[in-house]
Structure formats: C-alpha cells, structure tokens
Design the sequence.
C-alpha cells in the first residue's frame, strides 16, 4: 500500500505559500514545499506561523504536527537544483519501494513582464520569462511528476475520512487518482486572445498548456495520475499588485479565496474522464487553447 504526500513549488510567497498553509490545515499528509529566495528554515517558520494543524493517526513521524512540512531549496531555472531537491524528496519518500507516492503536485513558478507592443520586448527579460514559466515547470515534471506519481497498478492507501482533533478542521477528501497541476493563465489561450500584448507571458503560458497535455498523455499510459493546468484569476499577491486597479472588484480575489477555488477545482471537482490534459479556470470552466 502506497502512502500519499504533497508537493508545492515554490511556496515561499503568494499562491504557493497560501496553498501550502491551506493544505497543512485541511490534510494530514506530509508536504514538501520549496523556496528559492528565502532559506528553508525561514520559509518553514513563515508557513507554520499561527497555524492550527489537524492531528494525524499516522505512526510516521513525517505526518505529525510541524514535522509534516519539509522545505527544500529549489531554483526552477537550475536543473541541478531541481535534481538535488528531487533526490532529497526520494530520500524522505522512496518511490522505488512502493511505500510512498506523490498524490498532489503543484508547479507554480511565474514571472511577468507586460509588453504592450513588439518594440517593448527585451530579449533577456523574455528569455527569463520562458525559463521560469515554461522550462521551470517542464523540469519539475521531469524530476518530480515522472519520478514520484504512482505507477499503474499501485495500490494507493488514501484516508477515506481523515481524523481531526478539532471540528474547526474541515479536511480534504483526496481523489482516487494522483493529480499534477501547473499554474497557467487565461492569457495562454490563442482562441481568447482579442487584445494582444504581453507577448512573452502569453507564449510562456501557452507552452505550459502544451506541456501539460503532453505530460498527461504520458501519465495516461503509465500512471494512476493525470495532469492539468489552472488559471486562478487575478489573486491579490505581489505578482499581480500593479494590475489591481485595472481589474473589476468582483474579479479581484483575496489569496485565501483564490487558493480555496484552486483546491476545489483541481482536487475536489477534477475527474479523469473529463478534466485531464486541459486548462481550467477558477470557475471550473475550461480555458480553450
């Protein structure tokens, strides 16, 4: 029986940090989170700050209290950095012995330079956008999705009704399959591109959707897992701060609400038969290619 764990990268700020805290509150699973810009100890301290954790009946020390959370250094623009983090994860949760599998994986890296005309595109900035937004998730797929998602035939040990020490903890019911989620954007859609602009960002996120579909075809053949992409809308993080005044209030989401919608769409709602390989938005509607 293979036990589940969760992966979130990066998790030192924004959606990744809020998602990690949400999953710590709503599951009893061990979580590996990553950070590039702050030390693992500082990131872990911030993620656990003032957080009430549900209890676990697991006998594994990695599933109890703050020890459930492991923070690893990882830079998505450096494959050796990703490989080292992958090896550290394998040491904690060996995939080759059939005892552990990654049940939920979230690849969330993103940068944005809003070019409104071709003349505003700068090569180095565009290259960095593609490295972080497209090649970063691809390398995470290589070293985490392909290494740790459960193979077909693996018997998954999933808590049907996880224990909780407090009624304040409404715990998440895990799907019967593993899921790999990569953060995309509505701007990835060619069909929906009616305004133009944002050249490198649009291209990088369109690439994310292509990679997601390609990975999902691989998973469909070999794994008890699926891949999908997700558009969170405009969530109030540092990433979107300069655009808040341009977004209608009803379309500007607090980070907690944004994370709740993410988890509801990609974990609670997503089904193998209907959702795999596609990009979905915060409303649970497909974002067309």
Sequence:
């Amino acid at each position: 029986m293979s036990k589940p764990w969760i992966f979130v990268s990066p998790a030192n700020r924004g959606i990744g940090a809020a998602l990690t805290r949400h999953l710590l509150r709503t599951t009893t699973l061990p979580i590996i989170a990553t950070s590039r810009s702050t030390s693992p100890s500082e990131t872990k301290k911030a993620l656990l700050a003032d957080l009430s954790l549900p209890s676990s009946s697991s006998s594994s020390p990695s599933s109890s209290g703050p020890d459930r959370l492991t923070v690893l250094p990882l830079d998505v623009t450096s494959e050796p950095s990703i490989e080292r983090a992958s090896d550290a994860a394998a040491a904690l949760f060996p995939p080759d012995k059939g005892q552990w599998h990654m049940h939920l994986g979230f690849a969330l890296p993103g940068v944005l330079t809003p070019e409104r005309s071709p003349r505003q595109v700068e090569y180095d900035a565009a290259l960095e956008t593609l490295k972080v937004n497209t090649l970063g998730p691809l390398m995470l797929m290589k070293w985490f999705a392909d290494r740790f998602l459960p193979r077909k035939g693996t018997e998954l040990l999933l808590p049907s009704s996880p224990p909780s020490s407090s009624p304040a903890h409404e715990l998440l019911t895990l799907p019967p399959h593993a899921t790999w989620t990569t953060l995309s954007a509505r701007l990835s859609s060619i069909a929906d591109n009616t305004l133009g602009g944002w050249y490198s960002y649009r291209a990088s996120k369109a690439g994310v959707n292509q990679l997601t579909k390609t990975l999902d075809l691989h998973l469909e053949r070999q794994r008890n897992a699926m891949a999908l992409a997700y558009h969170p809308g405009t969530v109030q993080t540092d990433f979107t701060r300069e655009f808040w005044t341009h977004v209608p209030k009803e379309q500007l989401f607090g980070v907690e609400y944004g994370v709740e919608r993410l988890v509801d769409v990609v974990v609670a709602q997503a089904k193998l038969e209907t959702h795999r390989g596609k990009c979905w938005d915060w409303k649970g509607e497909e974002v067309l290619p």
